[in-house]
Design a protein that fits this description.
Number of domains: 1
Bound molecules: fe (iii) ion, zinc ion
CATH architecture: Alpha-Beta Barrel
CATH class: Alpha Beta
Structural class: alpha/beta
Number of strands: 12
Length: 275
């Protein structure tokens, strides 16, 4: 059975997300650690976490994925914006220790005219300041579409960030199917070739999660607009090959398609039938 879920609202806590996941046929889920625009996080409710962990074990919910606010920018030209990203991620990682052994995904950032090299160095610097040897969370760099001055739309850029981080064992990559296709990696016509590149440049052992999204835009458009599965430029057939690929099928899959719960339930049902 594949591990598949979708993005859920975290506003009602962990147990609520767990129950919602089960209600739509999911056995994992993704959630924002706080308001996606980056406001202050609610205090962790230890009772809620305890009930969730018990429920997750009973229901075989595994490998939940936290997502950092997408407004953070660890390589902003503004030092106070960089500092805010650092403090937020540091706080998120401390909170993640309540649900140990899972992953925390973030968007590397946008270098906003500073240049890609400087951006890469600042992202690595941030990671070097927040990663701790004792943490039990793996931090994932998400593959980006390359809109604006986004860092991380080329596998080489992610490899360079990892290369400059000391505690590499705490790092992984989350591949977003919409983003990589928008970035110019042709997973529709040459999934095998793209995975070979990923392996050569980053190493498939770093790949820890897949965001399964179709794209509203054509190949290499550098746009980043997600579409429902089978309704975009990737198409169901390409996505079917992703979730069934022998090098990918053991990974957790998270839908971030434009859906409400019912739509997610239908997509999960559909993809489970394609396996
Ligand atoms: Fe993301
Ligand atoms: Fe994503
Ligand atoms: Zn996206």
């Amino acid at each position: 059975m594949i591990t598949i879920g979708c993005h859920l609202s975290s506003s009602k806590g962990f147990l609520h997300m767990g129950k919602e996941a089960v209600s739509i046929g999911a056995n994992t889920f993704q959630f924002f650690t706080r308001n996606p625009r980056g406001s202050k996080a609610k205090a962790i409710d230890e009772k809620d976490v305890e009930l969730f962990l018990q429920y997750a074990e009973e229901q075989k919910i595994e490998r939940i994925l936290a997502h950092a606010p997408y407004t953070l920018n660890a390589c902003s030209a503004d030092p106070s914006t960089r500092e805010f990203a650092l403090m937020t991620m540091k706080d998120d990682l401390e909170r993640m220790e309540y649900v140990p052994g899972n992953c925390y995904n973030f968007h590397p950032g946008s270098h906003v005219g500073q240049g890609i090299e400087k951006g890469i160095q600042e992202i690595a610097d941030t990671l070097n300041r927040i990663l701790k040897p004792e943490q039990r969370t793996t931090v994932l760099l998400e593959t980006m579409s390359g809109k604006g001055s986004e860092v991380g739309s080329r596998f080489e850029e992610l490899a360079q960030i990892i290369d400059q981080v000391e505690l590499k064992e705490k790092l992984g990559v989350c591949l977003d199917t919409c983003h990589v296709y928008d970035a110019g990696y042709d997973i529709v016509n040459d999934l095998e070739g793209v995975l070979e590149q990923f392996h050569r440049i980053i190493g498939l052992e770093r790949l820890r999660a897949i965001h399964v999204n179709d794209s509203k835009n054509p190949f290499a458009s550098h746009k980043d607009r997600h579409e429902k599965i089978g309704e975009g430029s990737l198409g169901l057939e390409a996505i079917r090959r992703v979730i069934n690929h022998p090098k990918l099928r053991q990974l957790p899959f998270y839908l971030e398609t434009p859906n409400e719960l019912e739509g997610y339930a239908a997509e999960i049902r559909m993809l489970r039938e394609e396996v």
